[in-house]
Design brief:
Strand content: 15-25%
Radius of gyration: 20 Å
Number of strands: 6
Structural class: alpha+beta
Number of helices: 8
Largest sheet: 6 strands, antiparallel
Amino acid sequence: MNGPQDLGGRAGFGPVRPEPDEPLWHADWEPRALALTLAAGALGHWTLDESRHARESLPPAFYLSAPYYAIWLTALEALLVRHGEVTQDELTAGHAQQPGRTPELRLSAERVGAALAKGGPTERPAPAAARFAIGDRVRTRNLQPETHTRLPGYAREKVGVIVAVHGAHVFADSHAHGLGEDPRWLYGVRFEPEELWGAPGGAQVHIDAWEPYLEPA
């Protein structure tokens, strides 16, 4: 989908201003929002890709003006309602009105460190031979889906070169919508600045792109 998170290459949103010596948290509620998101994710009702899609589906006016962890918390509320853990009335009231679902998985405090260190590996057995190899020239497809995609808007219908073959990985476009892992080959693709921005100069850009995003150039 073309959501508010996909700002790469767009003008009119002001400069990126890095914060020197940025603190880990900007408000006391932010670590609680992160902890709630991790604990609720461990219930097993949704995938990482579904949770990312929930954040990227928020209305642009809210997404572009809200603090980072407010986006996480608002998306978490939507996921909890969608999967029957809470109701909208409970969110409005600020307290439980009925028991939630029996959790399939629980993340106890003593397991948090190991769970975060393990991460969520996405590499899977390849469903078929890779279509592309290092050195191949490829063109990204001009995808405009209403559903989830990890192909940036600025890199659509552009010609680049395969510089890495990462193996087959869970395909986020399917996984975000409960359609299974659907493993697809994942490639590193290099683009020249003039191909992306229309003028020479600047640095080359590298993106990782699944095979369904690409076609021979």
